[in-house]
Amino acid sequence: MTSKPTSQSYLKRHLEGALAAALEDTPVVCILGPRQCGKTTLALHQDSERAYISLDDQNFYHLATADPQGFIDDLPEYVTIDEVQRVPELTLAIKRSVDANRKPGRFLLTGSANLLQLPRLADSLAGRMECINLHTFSEAEKQAGSGRFLEQWLVGQFDMRLSASAPPEASTLPARIIAGGYPEAFQRKPARARQWQAQYIQSIIERDIHDISQVKDGSDVARFIEYMSHQTAQLLNVTETAKALGHTRATVEKYLVILERLYLLRRLPAWHRNSSKRLVKAPKVHLCDSGLAAALSGINEAMWMQDRSRFGHLVESFIVQQLCIQASWMESKVRLWHYRDKDKVEVDCVLTRGQHTWGVEVKAAASIRTSDGKGLKRLAVQAGSDFQGGIVFYDGTNILPIDKTLNLYAVPISKLWEL
């Protein structure tokens, strides 16, 4: 067996309960998420007695590649296999093993690529595997908070009453954005974190991309990632991106899919009243981790005071990531979109649960203007009776009403991790 990685301090993950429940009734459970987000640490914390195999270990990698079925047959009944996407052939061997012995919790897998988007892997374990999507650390997890803001807001339990004015304090937002959610980054000093982030991208280019796609020139993908870091939180225009980088549309689409599979980028689809039209409008593109986006685009914490406007798109991507993470903890499915109409009126993030609809606007400023609720009011008209309310997140300290009849409020960004 591979020697198990050790961690000096364990930060609790909100998906621990979901993982434990899956292991109690499902033969194969897979923790999916970006490399270095804490998948292995979570798996080992869940069951430290389970046998552990890492396919990053070249000895096990070669054994598994040479004889997938023999490799699986020789393993203990209960085992953790780390970075399973490196040997796709193992999934068919795991299927055969599970079909012969369907005891729950036999295989705990981790993957740094979205197996559900890899045809060779997804089809093999259909009906036998439950996937747990683990994001990078949320701000709530980083400080051991409950992370229940989104849940409380959507069920109407968040207290929107005016609070007493708090004394002004220096904003922690720029430091949080620059640090991002990877533990190896946010547990280091800023300069060292920036070094780690640069090497992280390089390791993805040199190794992980080749596990999931045939790419001839990794440096070409590196240039694409850097370009997309400057486009985060903006409408995706594949034609313009292809023109800027000297690629074909097909190459740009291929690279987008690669980055999505590696959990580095997400496309936020456009919301429309008629659900059949939602996918035909331009999506917004977000780099998932604000720290990586900042590193790639050359933005540092000192720039916050010099020119806060440069942080605008980063703040939006940062908030979208926090909402995505908190949505993943909820039992009822919450979907995220963006809104933009023919008048170029926008809402940064639209959340839906069934037909119920909420809107979120994001402002880097520490104050609110009367015009900041314009997009939310337009969304309310479009959603009609399904509209449940909206929030303008801003870098202030007080909850402020924008339009009580529409349930629109300005809310400090810090509430995302204080609750």
How would you characterize this protein structure?
By secondary structure, the chain is an alpha/beta fold. The chain has two domains: 16-133, Rossmann fold (3-Layer(aba) Sandwich); 139-418, no CATH class. It has 19 helices and 14 strands. Strands 9-10-11-12-14-13 form a six-stranded mixed β-sheet, sandwiched between helices. Strands 2-3-4-1-5 form a five-stranded parallel β-sheet, with helices on one face. The longest helix is centred in the middle third of the chain and has 23 residues, at 190-212. The two termini are 41 Å apart.
- The main sheet orders its strands as 9-10-11-12-14-13
**Terminal residue distance:** 41 Å
Strand content: 15-25%
* Low-pLDDT sequence parts: none
Shape: globular
Q: Helicity range of the residues? A: 40-55%
Largest sheet report:
6 strands, mixed
Number of domains: 2
Q: Give the count of helical stretches.
A: 19
Please tally the β strands and state the result: 14
Category from helices, strands and their pairing: alpha/beta
Global Rg: 22 Å
Could you tell me the mean pLDDT? 90
